Amino acid sequence: MEGIDEFVFNKELPVFKKSVLLQKTEDEQVKSLVERKQAFSAGGIWMTLGFKLMGSNATIRAQCGQIEQEKAATIKSVEKKEEDLRVKVEKADASFQLYKSGAKMPLEAWKDIVLFLVPLYDKDTAQSKLGTIKKATEKLNPFQGNYGSAWEELMEVQLRKFQSKQPAKPNADNNCLATF
């Protein structure tokens, strides 16, 4: 029997021999790299040490730590956005109450109203284009014709909508490091 038949139908039992690539001690790893002249080869280093690194406790813990950091950054970003939205809604509500009371409206109050309401209905308008009272009121006046309701009515609806929403916190309970 020769060729593939000999390989497939070999009657001898296979014997486990320690692979040169999977040496256990540091000295054996160094010796393997030097003998194969791969101490400066990324592939050689990977073949000698890579699989041990992938499964090592330190590598797994480091990967879990990185995942936890990314989760924390995401949660922090979401919380910041929620806080910014809450402040924006509060400012818009206070400015709208001032408008409804009939008091003289300062530029900041008009900006708060416009920066809250206009992006909800007109996403193409740049906020920098609404810097004066005249420009802000010009943007609010055509709401009746464009959206079927006066801006005051739309403002009340949107304020109620945003104030009734309670944002859900992202789930941060999965602790990858708890298992190590």
In summary, what is this structure?
This protein is an all-alpha fold and 180 residues long. It contains eight helices and no strands.
Plain-language structure description:
The protein is mostly helical and 180 residues long. It folds into two domains: 17-55, no CATH class; 78-164, no CATH class. The chain is 64% helix and 0% strand. It is built from eight helices and no strands. The chain has helices at 4-8, 26-35, 42-55, 57-101, 107-121, 133-140, 143-147, 151-164. Helix 4 packs antiparallel against helix 8 (151-164) and helix 5 (107-121) packs parallel to helix 6. The protein is rod-shaped, with a radius of gyration of 33 Å. The two termini are 53 Å apart. The relative contact order is 0.09. The model has no long low-confidence stretch (mean pLDDT 75).
Descriptors for this entry?
180 residues, mainly alpha, 8 helices, 0% strand, rod-shaped
List the helices and strands and how they pair.
Layout lengths: L3 H5 L17 H10 L6 H14 L1 H45 L5 H15 L11 H8 L2 H5 L3 H14 L16
Helix pairs in contact: 4-5, 4-8, 5-6
Question: How big a fraction of the residues is strand?
Answer: under 5%
Number of helical stretches of at least 4 residues: 8
Tell me the overall shape: rod-shaped
Instruction: Give me the oligomer status.
Output: single chain
Q: What's the helical proportion of residues?
A: 55-70%
Radius of gyration: 33 Å
| SSE class | mainly alpha
Could you spell the SSE succession in H and E letters? HHHHHHHH
N-to-C terminal Cα separation, in Å? 53 Å
Indicate the mean pLDDT. 75
User: Sheet bearing the most strands, described?
Assistant: none
Unreliable stretches:
none
Give the total of beta strands.
Answer: 0
> How many structural domains are formed by the residues?
2
